[in-house]
Target: MFS transporter
Amino acid sequence: MSNADEIRPPHDGLHGAARNLAMLAVALSVLLSVLDYAIANVALPTIAQDIHATASESIWVINAYQMASVISLLPLATLGDRVGPARLCRIGLILFVVASLLCAGSTTLLQLSLSRALQGFGGACIMSVNANLVRHIYPRAIIGRGIALNGLVIAAGVALGPTIASAVLSVAHWPWLFLINLPLGGMAFLVSLLALPRIPAKPAAVDAWSAALTAGSFGSLIVGFDRLSHADGLGVSALLIAIGGFCLFALVRRQRGQSDPMLPLDLLALRGFRAAVLTGFLGFVASNFFIISMPFTLMGHLHRTAVATGLLITPWPLAIVAVSPFVGRLADRYPAAVLSGLGLCITATGFLLLFLLPNGPSDADIAWRIALAGAGFGIFQPPNNRAMLLGAPPSRAGSASGMISVARLLGQTVGAMLVASVFALMGVRANQLCLLFASATALSAALVSFNRLRHRAAAANGTTDGIPDKQDGA
Model:
């Protein structure tokens, strides 16, 4: 047993240097998994050209990572409860570094996609437990600050991604984008070994059948709908969708009535938790409409270089970083329904203004619109994640942590799939239409968030089926 395993958090979080060091371990681990996603996104046109893939085909470099993460998040969140979140985080770090080496050595789309899938599985080990670790590191009264700091790290990874991608591509070949994970991964592993708290594990076996059904349902549905969006073999697409639907039906039947289900039906039955999940999912669908299509818009339509493209996208995460310190404190004081809804409205406005860009826009015209959308997204995330995390009883923190990442990654995966569909169907207008769809989806997420105010009022009158606002995050 390592020294880290002896660090047990007190009843209400860690304090002082112990909290700071433990959060550093979480931050470095999360940064590793997010940084590579952002880097691959910006470098996608370059990678596609080098491995001789079309724009729509190359999105599988993103989708492979996302799908592997989505299908494994819930089983891994359950596994984290069984073996300990800190131990699973360290396993994820090892897998991620090994997969990064394989990505750097890939020469075909298939090789790169498979390596990215392994990378996604390692990232899922980290992301399935990171919110659970934050819940045990921070006292409940200030947990919003911990969640905001976690969001700031994610945004910093996205911010650094374009800059690092631009810098590396200006002097080296794209495989070096994956090799930079090695020193960061080694540092994250060392700090996690020293500082992460030991959270008591649940003495129960993982339900292997439920894990298989979870992977089968998410995987088959994602691949089936992706093939359908490309009009790629209607019969095979329909078969995969049918298999996914059957697996999901079987999973729900198997999990119904369980006290600790892998698919958190008990949590999704709570209005506040369910609304937060849906808000998060739609918010990330909207963000991927923007994030994936924008590099192609900047390079193909607005004739910016790869370096300029990376720099122009950077205001999005920088704005998230800028608002995070303030949002963390606000999230502990005001309802998520209001803060998240307002943030999503700002994001929708930013996307709409990008859609309405004049002909021949300057870099400043583009940058301030992207920054506005990013600031709104930074306001939306921490309160909504807090609502999910505190919407679950302490004994279900692992599942709540997993669902935070599921909402994000499933939203990003569906967003990437929809972008591929728009690219395949809409031709030269695809890039502009993606921005319009991004705005509409963000506005839809805002409406879902604001709708929680009605249920919050019902809760005050004792008529809701959820739990009080301070727990369900309404």
In short: The chain has two domains: 10-204+260-472, 205-255. The chain has a mean pLDDT of 83. Residues 205-255 form one domain.
